[in-house]
Amino acid sequence: MAATFTWDRLRLFSCLAVISMAKAQNPDQFIYTNGFRDANLQLDGSAEIRSNGLLQLTTTSRLLTAHAFYPSPINFNTSSSSAPSLSFSTNFVFAMVPQSEEASGHGVAFVISQSTDFSDADAVQYLGLVNESTNGNPSNHFIAVEFDTIFSLGTDTIDGNHVGIDLNGVISNQSIASAYFSNEEGKNISLDLKNGLPIQVWIDYDGQQQLLNVTLAPENSPKPNQPLLSASIDLSDILMATMYVGFSAATGSIESCSQYIMGWSFNRSGQAQSLEMSQLPKLPKNGGGRNTVRLISIIAAVLLLLIIIGAAYAYWRKKYEEVLEDWEKEYGPHRFSYKTLYIATKGFKDKQLLGSGGFGKVYKGTLPYTNEQIAVKKVSHESSQGMKEFVSEIVSMGRLRHKNLVRLLGYCRRKKELLLIYELMENGSLDKFLFSDDKPTLNWFQRFQIIRGVATALLYLHEEGEQVVLHRDIKASNVLLDSELNGRLGDFGLARLYDRDSDPQTTRLVGTLGYMDPELTRTGRATKAADVFALGAFLLEVACGRKPFAPHGPPEEISLVDLVERCFKRGAIVDAVDPRLQGNYVVKEMERVLKLGLLCSNTEPDLRPTIKEVVQYLEGNVSLPDIPIDSRSQKIPSSILETFGRSIEINTSMTNSIASDSVVSLSSLLGNGLSLNSLSSADSVLRIGN
Ligand SMILES: *[C@@H]1O[C@H](CO)[C@@H](O)[C@H](O)[C@H]1NC(C)=O
Ligand SMILES: *[C@@H]1O[C@H](CO)[C@@H](O)[C@H](O)[C@H]1NC(C)=O
Ligand SMILES: *[C@@H]1O[C@H](CO)[C@@H](O)[C@H](O)[C@H]1NC(C)=O
Ligand SMILES: *[C@@H]1O[C@H](CO)[C@@H](O)[C@H](O)[C@H]1NC(C)=O
Ligand SMILES: *[C@@H]1O[C@H](CO)[C@@H](O)[C@H](O)[C@H]1NC(C)=O
Ligand SMILES: *[C@@H]1O[C@H](CO)[C@@H](O)[C@H](O)[C@H]1NC(C)=O
């Protein structure tokens, strides 16, 4: 009665396809298609039921054994009416998920055993069934169908991916390389046991014919028409009246597989029902399996790709990033995009570098589309304070037009960087011609032409523009030569940037030693007269071919203006002329230039000529006034040092740093013998640029 009832229930459940567990009351058949949660299996070793009902025999840890048996024994008593033969049928799905591509087993076995006590059995090649001394012992009374993933010397006869039938031990009575017969293709296809995917197994034993069939198939394949293994085996000596059915598994001594049983049916009274793959508990998505490894690699690859794309985008953004504020809109035409400049200068390559000075590096470039040649000056600036005013000034300077001014085409702003775009002057700066041997010597006609050009440019800045523009850094290196060797004044007004971003408490002096009005160092106020002073130094350097300040020379030649003055006092001012001219110059013009240079170098600003007068003198329309002898009682270096309230000797290391073309900061002066206490005005900072 009870049996019939259960039987009906079983059929009902199987129709509904929700059966997860057979009844313990009917021990000769059962099915687990929905996990083993309620199965009450006899577990030992590493075996456990996961929360989704999946039977996990082993993890990937080393040297594990595991067993899982159906809780009650199965009747194999052939004398009893309910079990007339030894026939049985089982169907299960297992999966071996390796830790890594190369890792494996040791393997899983389906076992019918007299006992469920395998406490003395070993892992590795003994599959958790026997140990070395009990291997093959007839009293073991078990039959195992092994799914072995490792070739073990001594127990195996074939490769590391095989199916074998083991009787009382792990030395296979029959074994064969893992494969399945594809009904569709009509051929055997080899099957990797540890591919991480579910594998279906059917084991059918015909007690009459004494034929044991083992059939394998990958998931979602129907049962193959041909078994992988069809072995003629007499199990009567092995199978006792009651036997336990279940699984045994072991891991190896190195990295290994996680081994799972996903579903299982067993039948003594007929063909075991096939399992519904879709209902079986799923394999874990994480946990070091190959599947997972594959998935993780795919995810990692996708992430990596995203990161690369993101980084490339961020890099691209960063590369061309610029600062553009609302107020800049009106300057649209003067505003260059950083990308344009980047392309124009080939990414600000060193090869494009024209030079670098106190205000920053200058790069040569070619604007895309128009092919216009430009020079891009990169000026670093710390704060955006006063930037608006500065940019508006820059833009207004862009409106200045004079044939002897280098045209400012526009600007671009980035974080901590201001870029100024000028028209390119093919011949570079004048100082290269005057002081280096790389360029040809300019003749007097050319030099005089340059001097007049620069003077008229300064006249334009001081008197003829809409507003007064002080240059504040006139010197040979700021005079550029165009293709016809006309002198063009560059960098005008740039000094103001340093006014803007400095602390209002401090005054920064911008200028270059030797060109700097002593008055300027005292008051810190830029004036037209200070520009004229610098122009005077410039006139002398062009005529004499020397720098206004030559710290390495003999003491009497350190200051050019002193040297010229001495020659003048001797009544032989032309002795100071650049020897490279080899005497080829117009004496009148030369004398005028040298004397004008001295006049402009007067320490008393009021006694210097205005730029208008300078131009008139140069043109020769007006004759020069007398040069007051002894007007220059103070020498330039000492007058600067006097500002600091103290006169010291210029030692070599100090003059080295002053003479270098880079911006000399106060600290380097301090480091060379001047202490902060010695400053007459503690707040003033001397900043000396080239
Ligand atoms: C097998 O079944 C027969 C008949 O039911 C019974 O007499 C016999 O004791 C059983 N054998 C074992 C070993 O249980
Ligand atoms: C093997 O197992 C038997 C009993 O199952 C036990 O007596 C024996 O000590 C074991 N031998 C080893 C080497 O573990
Ligand atoms: C396989 O088992 C049978 C008994 O069923 C035995 O006669 C035969 O020798 C065994 N073969 C091997 C290779 O162990
Ligand atoms: C498939 O393999 C089995 C076992 O090795 C063999 O008996 C059978 O002939 C093979 N079938 C084909 C179509 O090769
Ligand atoms: C075992 O396989 C053979 C060969 O395919 C077949 O003839 C036999 O019916 C099968 N036996 C069982 C019990 O499935
Ligand atoms: C066992 O076999 C019988 C006869 O074929 C069948 O009706 C029953 O559904 C099977 N039970 C299981 C659990 O496979």
Automatic annotation (TrEMBL):
Transmembrane intervals: 295-316
SMART domains hit by this protein: S_TKc
InterPro entries in the record: ConA-like_dom_sf, Kinase-like_dom_sf, L-type_Lectin-RKs, Lectin_legB_Mn/Ca_BS, Legume_lectin_dom, Prot_kinase_dom, Protein_kinase_ATP_BS, Ser/Thr_kinase_AS
Protein name: non-specific serine/threonine protein kinase
Any Pfam family hit: Lectin_legB
EC number, UniProt record: 2.7.11.1
Record-annotated Protein kinase domain positions: 348-624
Cellular compartments annotated: Cell membrane
Coiled coil stretches, renumbered: none
Leader sequence residues: 1-24
Keywords: ATP-binding, Cell membrane, Glycoprotein, Kinase, Lectin, Membrane, Nucleotide-binding, Receptor, Serine/threonine-protein kinase, Signal, Transferase, Transmembrane, Transmembrane helix
Binding site for ATP: 378
Family of the protein in this entry: In the N-terminal section; belongs to the leguminous lectin family.
Top-rank taxon: Eukaryota
Membrane topology: Single-pass type I membrane protein
